[in-house]
Amino acid sequence: MKVLRFLFRSFFLTAHIGVAILFLLSAVSDRISPASFPLFAYLGLGFPLFCLCNVAFTIYWLFLHEWRFIWIGLLAFVLGWEQVKLYFPVHAPVEEIPKEQTIKLLTYNIMSFAYKEHTQAHPNPIIEYIAHSDADIVCLQEYAEDTHANYLTKRKIYRALKMYPYRSIIYLTKSNRLRSGIAVFSKFPIEKSQRIEYDSEFNGSSMHFIRLPGDKKLLLVNNHLESFKLTTEDRTRYASFLKGSGTEDLEYLKGSLQQKLGTAFKIRAAQAQKVAEVVQKTESDYVIVCGDFNDTPISYAHHTLQQGLVDAFSESGRGMGISYHQNCFWFRIDHVLHSKNMKSLNCTVDDIADSDHYPVWCYLQLK
Length: 367
Prior knowledge:
Elements: H1 2-27, H2 39-45, H3 47-63, H4 67-79, H5 81-87, E1 102-109, H6 125-131, E2 137-146, H7 154-160, E3 166-175, E4 178-186, E5 190-196, E6 204-212, E7 216-224, H8 232-242, H9 247-281, E8 286-292, H10 300-305, E9 309-311, H11 312-316, E10 324-326, E11 329-331, E12 334-339, E13 342-349, E14 360-366
Parallel strand pairs: 1-2, 7-8
Antiparallel strand pairs: 1-14, 2-4, 3-4, 5-6, 6-7, 8-12, 9-12, 10-11, 13-14
Helix pairs in contact: 1-2, 1-3, 1-4, 3-4, 8-9
């Protein structure tokens, strides 16, 4: 019996040490470019899993009164605490938002307005959500419009969102009648807009100079960084694998997902570096970098873009803040970063499921 107990203890101790090491490696993985060491990008994706396992092992030792082993989990958490706070923030909501010197920002990957029309009889749910959001600035990714009058045209969109007199659309693709890209709708004057140049076939970033009350200049960067380009089959097989369907899906995923994820990690690294370079060189009173990064809080892209900025959800959000929710892919990949002379309040991932992303909004108090 003692031998069996020793073997069990040795097994769990070894497993916990392994998990603690993986947890710490994943916590620092966002410092290492996927272009140099792609493996660390995958470790970053596993951060919440390693974190959960570390908690489970620590509770296990606590339950067995094995005090000498509890330090493994506690030490790992102490060393990785900043990343834990970034990924799993816990903040109480602010009941009264200051009206003075405060703006509301909304960022939303709208999946081409859910491919729906907008009529009086059948209003588009995404357009309706934006119109009633009371946001001062709206950043959209996967914005799309049709040039045919029977479908969702720019004119219909502008009319429905007439509370935003200032608009800027950066078209990334044009095909026959359809145009798509990234867009900004604002209640404040947009003085200048331009695309940030980097290599991408369908994705992109744009910078906008917005004149805020008090004659302050805001640099707003709207991003839709490189996606993994997963097909319907990729997503279906991944969901099937998680449900334990067998090894066929695993073999397929090892080939398809590894290639697509690895390529996208490297492309996003270069894109994030370019955007960060532009932000650092541009003078303004305030800075907001937001949008669909297609990467989690523990990623090289997020870490690169966050240099000198604050993550709004980490500062004022609650929980994991999952913003992408399809086919068993649940990640926070939509972000709001802001300069340190702003303070975020009540950063929220809203519960509206008309797109494959949830909208993210927050109040930003200007200091």
